[in-house]
């Protein structure tokens, strides 16, 4: 039985990427940049984790030196816009997530976050869907800018393990993407995958469990027995 459950945020706790995409596009328009990321373009761009890294990649791909752009300032504005959009309440948790978190905490397990996005965005999601701060919902949060290298590097899961005080073998990660799976596996965790619209055709070879929806796990008891069977 895992002592700790560690959740990815974007695409796992909630389908947030359309809100991120809108926040990016509105920021570009406001800054006078002739960039508009379609869903198809964003699907490809998502392979680069992190908003600043994603903008720099896009600039380079269209022949603009990323160093000539105020990437950090654009990203600050994008985050402010995302937090504002999130507060308007358009986002819901993915089915099964709330029950898993509540059951795990009631059973004395640790519940953490390992995400590429910022703490600010995790806080905005927690306020919008639970009406509570992220530190009330989770025992701890490991976020993108707290580590040297974002997913698929294992740094953020290693940080989450240190924060929760558990060994990799005692924890299970919940992810929706190949980059997240590689990060969790690189840190030595078991990993449960439930893909979303942007990640459905990715390769999840190496995952311990792959489910269509987190409700397919059958709550905490179902998770324990499915992980035991998969071992
Ligand atoms: C998803 C990401 C993030 C978001 C945008 O990470 O790659 O970059 O798309 O957020 P995860 P930022 O699924 O690990 O949470 O602009 O704040 O990076
Ligand atoms: Mg994700």
Question: Care to describe what's here?
Answer:
The chain has 231 residues and is an alpha/beta fold. The protein is built from 10 helices and 6 strands; from the N terminus they run βαααααβααβαβαββα. A 6-stranded parallel beta sheet has the order 3-2-1-4-5-6. β4, α9 and β5 form a beta-alpha-beta unit. It is globular, with a radius of gyration of 17 Å. It binds xylulose-1,5-bisphosphate (XBP) and magnesium ion. The site of xylulose-1,5-bisphosphate has 18 residues, from α1. Xylulose-1,5-bisphosphate (XBP) binds next to α1.
Features:
10 helices, binds xylulose-1,5-bisphosphate, globular, binds magnesium ion, alpha/beta, about 230 residues, about 45% helix
Helix content: 40-55%
Strand content: 5-15%
- CA radius of gyration is 17 Å
Q: Tell me the distance between the termini.
A: 11 Å
SSE succession: EHHHHHEHHEHEHEEH
Low-confidence stretches: none
Q: What is the number of strand segments?
A: 6
Put simply, the count of helices is: 10
The main sheet comes to: 6 strands, parallel
**Which outline best applies?**
globular
- As laid out across the biggest beta sheet, the strand order is 3-2-1-4-5-6
Structural class: alpha/beta
Bound molecules: xylulose-1,5-bisphosphate, magnesium ion
Give the overall average pLDDT.
Answer: 97
Protein topology:
Layout: E1 4-7, H1 17-30, H2 39-45, H3 51-61, H4 71-87, H5 97-106, E2 110-114, H6 119-130, H7 134-137, E3 140-142, H8 155-164, E4 171-175, H9 178-186, E5 190-193, E6 209-210, H10 219-230
Parallel strand pairs: 1-2, 1-4, 2-3, 4-5, 5-6
The structure holds xylulose-1,5-bisphosphate (XBP) and magnesium ion (MG).
């Amino acid at each position: 039985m895992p002592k700790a459950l560690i959740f990815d945020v974007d695409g796992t706790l909630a389908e947030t990427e359309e809100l991120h995409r809108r926040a990016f596009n509105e920021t570009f328009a406001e800054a006078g940049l002739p960039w508009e990321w379609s869903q198809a373009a964003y699907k490809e761009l998502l392979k680069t984790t992190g908003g600043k890294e994603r903008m720099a990649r896009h600039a380079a791909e269209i022949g603009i030196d990323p160093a000539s752009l105020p990437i950090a300032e654009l990203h600050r504005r994008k985050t402010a816009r995302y937090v504002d959009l999130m507060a308007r309440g358009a986002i819901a948790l993915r089915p099964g997530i709330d029950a898993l978190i509540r059951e795990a905490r009631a059973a004395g397990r640790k519940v953490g976050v390992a995400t590429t996005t910022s703490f600010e965005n995790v806080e905005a999601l927690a306020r919008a869907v639970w009406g509570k701060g992220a530190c009330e919902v989770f025992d701890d949060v490991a976020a993108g800018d707290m580590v040297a290298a974002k997913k698929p590097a294992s740094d953020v899961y290693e940080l989450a393990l240190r924060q929760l005080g558990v060994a990799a073998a005692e924890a299970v990660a919940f992810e929706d993407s190949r980059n997240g799976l590689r990060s969790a596996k690189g840190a030595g965790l078991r990993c449960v995958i439930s893909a979303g619209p942007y990640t459905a055709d990715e390769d999840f070879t190496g995952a311990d469990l792959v489910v269509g929806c987190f409700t397919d796990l059958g709550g905490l008891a179902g998770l324990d027995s499915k992980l035991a069977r998969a071992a």
